[in-house]
Design a protein that fits this description.
Blueprint lengths: L6 E5 L2 H7 L6 E8 L5 E9 L3 H6 L7 E6 L3 H15 L26
Antiparallel strand pairs: 1-4, 2-3, 2-4
The structure holds zinc ion.
Length: 114
Amino acid sequence: MANTGLLGPYRLTFDAIDAAVTQTSPGVFALGHADPGGRFCVNHVGRSDADIKIKLRDFIGSDSLFKYGYFPSSEAAFQKECALFHDVRPPRNLVHPGRPKGTSWECPHCRIFA
Ligand SMILES: [Zn+2]
């Protein structure tokens, strides 16, 4: 599996999210589990355009582990989310990442928005 370049993994619990994610920032996350060899396996990737911590809390209970990364803008987070979507092909991401309403951002890896 491709290296995500994200921090972690951490347990996907309220307390572990609170301890690991200390900044209010746009970000990208990967949810997953550990395989029998202890390697992190990505099931789903996503992003927050404003606050990665709040977004992660929405997914508590859906998986066991998460990784995350802060990004300086929601556009940077969008580009990273697209890169992970195309590189990792997470099994629970059934549709391409969306761009925020009102933007004309393009995916750097495909022509879905062209
Ligand atoms: Zn794409």
